[in-house]
Amino acid sequence: MSDAPVFPKRAPAHAAMTQFPIRDGELIVGGQKLSLLAERVGQTPFYAYDRSLLRARAAQLRDALPKQVKLHYAMKANPLPAVVGLMAGLVDGIDVASAGELQVALNAGADPAEISFAGPGKRDIELNQAVAAGVLINVESPRELPVLAAASQRMGLPARVAVRVNPDFELKGSGMKMGGGPKQFGIDTEVLPELLAEIGRLSLAFEGFHLFAGSQNLRAESICEAQQKSYELALRLAQHAPAPVKFLNLGGGFGIPYFPGEQPLDLAPIGENLQQLVGRAAQEMPQASLVIELGRYFVGEAGVYVTRIVDRKVSRGQVYLVADGGLNHHLAASGNFGQVVRKNYPATIGNKAGSAEREPASVVGPLCTPLDLLADRMELPVAEVGDLAVVFQSGAYGRSASPQDFLGHPHCVEVLV
Ligand SMILES: *Cc1c(COP(=O)(O)O)cnc(C)c1O
Predict the structure, then answer these.
(1) Domain named Orn/DAP/Arg decarboxylase 2 C-terminal: which ranges (predicted)?
(2) CA of 35 to the centre of ligand 1 (A)
C-alpha cells in the first residue's frame, strides 16, 4: 500500500448563484441585506422572490426568442397572487391548471382572452367557470366536450377549446419516459381526428392545439427537437380541425440548473429554431400564433427559501445545522418532489455568504424524519444558532408544492421584494 495521500475526486460544483449579489459579506435579496430583509419580514422561515429578477428573466426571453412567439406563464410554478400579478404584466398569457388558479389569475388582472386552462379531471363546475370567464380550455378528454357544449348553450357564450395532444414522442432528457406511451394527459393522436370532428358537430369554438412534451430540460437540442416534432404533428392534425389553428402551444420544458454539474440552458439555439418555425407557420398555418408556456424558467431562479438555524449539533463528527423549517415548506429541496436520487439544491448561510471560513455541514429541518434534509454534507460558511440558511433556485414549486401542516410547525410566509 502506498502512503501517498488520497485526494478526494473534486465534486462537480453548483452553477454560481450570481443573481443574488453579496455585499459586506451578506447576500442581497430585493436590494436588501438578507438579515435586514428577515427583520422586515418579521419571521422565519420565508420565501422571497425578487421582482427585478422576474423582470430580467422575461426580458431575456423576449430578447432570445422571436417577437412573434407568445410567452405564457404556467402559474402552478408559483401561484402567489403578487407574483401572478407581476407576471401578468410581463407575459402574453397565463396558463392555469384548476378553477382555483383561474380565480387567482383573474383577480390578478390577467386578460381572460389570454388565459388557457389545462389539466386532467376538470370537474363540470370548473368547465362551466371557464366558459363563463371566456378562457381557452385545453380539452384533455372526450368527456369534456358535451359538458362544454351544454355550458355554451346555456350561457349563450362560445366555448373556446384547444386540444391537448398526447404525442407519440416525448422530450428527451426530461427524466420522463421516452416513446409515446399511455398518459392521463391529453388525447392520443390516434383518436384525434374523431375528436376534432365531434368538436365541429358540437359547434365548439376550436382554436388550436396544445402539446407539452416534458419539463426541467437543460438540453437545447432536445427542446428544439420536441418543438419541431410538435409543430409537424400539429400541422398534420390541423387537416382534421373544424377551424383554422389560432394558437399552437408548443409547451415549454425549459430547465434551470439545480444540481452540481448542471449548466444553464442555452436559449440561442431555441430562438433560432423557433424563428424557423415562425417562418413555416406564416406559410402553413397563417392564422396561428406559436405559444411557449413556462413555469419554473420564469420564476425558479428569482426565489430563495430562508430558514433560521435554531441548533447546531455534532453527531459522530458530522455538523448538523437544525433550522426552523425544511421539508414542510420546501419539499423539492428535501429531494422528495419527484427526484429519483436526492441531490443538494445550491445553498449558503445568507448572512455569512461571503465568509471564507467554511466547513462541511448538513442543514436539516425540525421534522421527526430523516427525509427533512435541506443540505447534505455541503461546504458551507461556518454557522451558529441565529444564522440564516438559504436555499437558492426556490422560486418555483416551493411553498405551494409542500406539506405545510405536516408535524404542525408554523407556516412560512412569502414576500415579493
Ligand atoms: C406544469 C406545466 C407547465 C410548467 O412546467 P415548468 O417545468 O414549470 O416550466 C407547463 N405546461 C403544463 C401543461 C404544465 O402542466
Answers:
(1) 46-395
(2) 33
